[in-house]
Amino acid sequence: MTQGRELAPAVRSILTAASERNDTAERDPLAVDARSLTDAIDRAERDGRVPVIAEVKPTSPTSDGTRDDDPVELATAMVEGGATAISVLTEPTHFGGSPEALTRVREAVDVPVLRKDFVLEEAGMDVVEADLLLLIARFVGVREPTDSRASRNATRPEAELDELVTAARDRGFQPLVEVHDEAELESALEAGAEIIGINNRDLAELEVDLDTFESVAPEVPDDVTLIAESGISGPADVRRMREAGADALLVGSAIMDHDGDTDVTANTRALVRATAETETQTQRQT
To answer: CATH says 35-141+157-284 is which class?
Structure first.
C-alpha cells in the first residue's frame, strides 16, 4: 500500500534493499516466546517512569554521524537509564544493523525487544526472534523491481496488512503497525492491530512534525497501545506526546546522539523522568 506523495529517494533505496533481502532465502517459521510490551509499559507506569522504547541505531539516512559502540553495551546502558523496551535496527545497508546484534541484545536484557526493519512479506519475519516486529502500513505491497530477482518475483501476490499481522502473531511476535495518517490508521485497525505507532516523520520528504501524532492520535481506540515515533528530541517533546495520548515513545537519535557521542544512560534517563521532573517543579512552585 502506498498513499499520497512519492517516497523520498532514500526510502525507495531502503525498500529496494529490503525486497532483495526478503527474497533470498526460505526459512522455517519462527516460534517466539515474547515478552509482553503492555506488561512492561504497566511496570514503567507503576514505577513513575515514562515508557520509552530506546533504539539501538548505529546510523540512519537522516543522521549526520555513526556510533560504533557495541550494541549490547548500548542496550544495557539504555535499560540502566530506565528504558521500558529496546528497539534494534536489523537493516544493514542504510542503518548499520544486523539480526546478530538483535539476538545478542535480546539475550543481554530482560525487557521486550523490537525488531525494526522493513518487512514486506512473511519470509522476512523468519530472520531472527524478537518480542515485537515492526510492520509499516505504507510499505505493505510495495516491491521495487530493480534487478533480475525482483523482476522474477514481481508477479507474486503481494501480502496484505491483515495477512502480515496474522502471520506475525502466529509466530509469537507482537506486531507493531506503524502509520502516518488517518487512512493508514484505518487500515491498521481493520487489520486487527493492537499496538500502533504513529510516525511523525513524513516518508515523502523525511521531514518531522509532532503535529502528526496530535492529529491522528484522537482517532485511535482506547484499547490500542499507542506509541509516538520520531522527532522526540527532549523532555518537552516527551511531555507533549504524552499529553496527546502516547502510551509509550520510540526514541532513537536523541538517545544515540550520533553527532556527540554522549552518555546513552543519561540521555535515556532524561526522557524517562520528563514528567516526574515537571511534577516536582510544580510542587515546588505551589
So the answer is: alpha beta
Average pLDDT of 25-37?
91
Phi, psi of 208 (to 5 degrees): -110, 135
Cell of 150: 525482483
Distance spanning both ends of the chain, measured CA to CA: 52
Name the strand (E) or helix (H) holding 189: helix 182-190
The residue extents of the domains of the chain are 35-141+157-284
Total residues belonging to the chain: 286
C-alpha cell recorded at residue 224: 490500542
Residue 123, sorted as left (phi over 0), alpha (psi -120 to 50) or beta, turns out to be alpha
pLDDT for 167-218, tens place per residue?
999 999 999 999 999 999 999 999 999 999 999 999 878 899 999 999 999 9
Question: Which of 267, 268, 257, 264 is closest to 60 using CA atoms?
Answer: 257
Q: What DSSP assignment string belongs to 97-133?
A: --HHHHHHHHHH-SS-EEEES---SGGGGGGS--SEE
Radius of gyration of the chain (CA): 18
